[in-house]
User: Fold IS110 family transposase ISCARN28 from bioreactor metagenome.
Amino acid sequence: MHVPTSEDEAVKNYTRLRNTRVDALKKAKQNLLSFLLRSGRVFSEGRNYWTNIHYAWLKRQQFTDPVDQETFNEYLQEVYDQQDKVDRYNQRIEQLSQLEAYREKVARLRCFRGIETHTALSLVSEIGDFSRFANAQQFSAYLGLVPGEDSSGQREKRGGITKAGNTRLRLLLIEGANATLRSSLYGQKSKRLKARQEGNEADVIAYADKANRRLHRVYNNLTNRGVIKNKATVAVARELSCFIWGMMNNKID
Assistant:
């Protein structure tokens, strides 16, 4: 049975603190948007919320009723406050990732498109010893990313994922899969990804690049066969978990 170190426990608790603040930020944004919708204020100057254009639009909003203005100001300030906290926690997580116990592992994981420092550090601090999983399938099962089976008589049906195991890491990998698939640079590398990969060994980078290409192929093959996007994304997260296991156990040939 794996026994985490006191350092792992402390770092894990901090990364979880960051996640609760991210949830609070999402809630603050939802509250603000709901208030604006109830007030008949619709953003039409761009396609996406929370961009510089959107924030500039928010700052221009004025309400005739002073109480409405006060309510809006409070909702907007809450978004700023929660964002400041997330930014502060992210900076601290960057520092923690440079501790000797985590530096190399985090650097390797950041070579994958879709895995930023907080996801990499969460994986390393929560899992500890990746070799305790005999193979990639066991690791995926621990995360609850393998399909369940429904056996009835002579029939055996594969259903949705089991959702057993570590819920937090499963959700982080699904988020990572989404981030990977949002990239329009299929087969290419963004400057940001190149910067993350810099300093790693050539075989590590090659393995991560192989994974990044395969994840896109898996998603495209599934969606072209009519699989709904959410299920295809979960399948990509499962593939990503297998590559992570390989990276952490040096199975990168």
About this structure: The CA atoms of residues 32 and 76 lie 7 Å apart. Residues 132-248 form one domain. The longest strand covers residues 155-161.
